[in-house]
Amino acid sequence: QVQLQESGPGLVKPSETLSLTCNVSGISITSGYYWGWIRQPPGKGLEWIGSIHHSGSTFYNPSLESRVSISVDTSKNQMSLKLKSVTAADTAIHYCARRGDFGDSFDRWGQGVLVTVSS
Amino acid sequence: AIRMTQSPSSLSASIGDRVTITCRASQDIYNYVAWYQQQPGKAPKILIFAASALQSGVPGRFSGSGSGTDFSLTISDLQTEDLATYHCQQYHSYPLTFGGGTKVEIK
Known about the structure:
The complex is a heterodimer of chains A (119) and B (107).
Chain A lengths: L2 E5 L3 E2 L5 E8 L8 E7 L6 E7 L4 E3 L7 E6 L4 E6 L8 E8 L6 E4 L3 E5 L2
Parallel strand pairs in A: 2-11
Antiparallel strand pairs in A: 1-3, 3-8, 4-5, 4-9, 5-6, 7-8, 9-10, 9-11
Chain B lengths: L3 E4 L2 E4 L5 E7 L7 E6 L6 E5 L3 E2 L7 E6 L2 E6 L8 E7 L6 E2 L3 E5 L1
Parallel strand pairs in B: 2-11
Antiparallel strand pairs in B: 1-3, 3-8, 4-5, 4-9, 5-6, 7-8, 9-10, 9-11
């Protein structure tokens, strides 16, 4: 079955770059779906970061667009997230997810990884 | 960005109760709404897409309705495993946005 698994450092210093990877298994990342990143500050709601298609088509949240980059590595069946110049406000659980068959809802999610921004 | 206003922010109900959560969009989004369940410590799980279509494998006690700006999620026969936070999401236009969440507690 389709599985997504996030990985990356759990602690990032302020002003540095947050880097996460989403490993996709059970399906090829080139299968035609869009893949996305969503984050959730502890105890708060969900915020969409951005989405990507393996063709390179990307959509970003304007609130983060100047600092964010999402890419796909088809050879590794992975998606990556980079968020630069982080502050404490970027502390959150980060999820990768697959867009479903009917519009930009998300039908498969990874378990999430907590990234804390602190010196 | 389209704002999704969800209410109530929390509720407490008994096993077997019928529970309804609402979500109001700041503009017409037709039926481009999804609902998610997030159990404590877990990732969100999709329940409903296209406002009223039940995701495969989701129990039939969950239902969604609405169009335009007003949407609702109903749990018809609350079970202990329904203890969770529920989120609505619009996908009419970018940026994709979520409601603030509704925490459902069991009395």
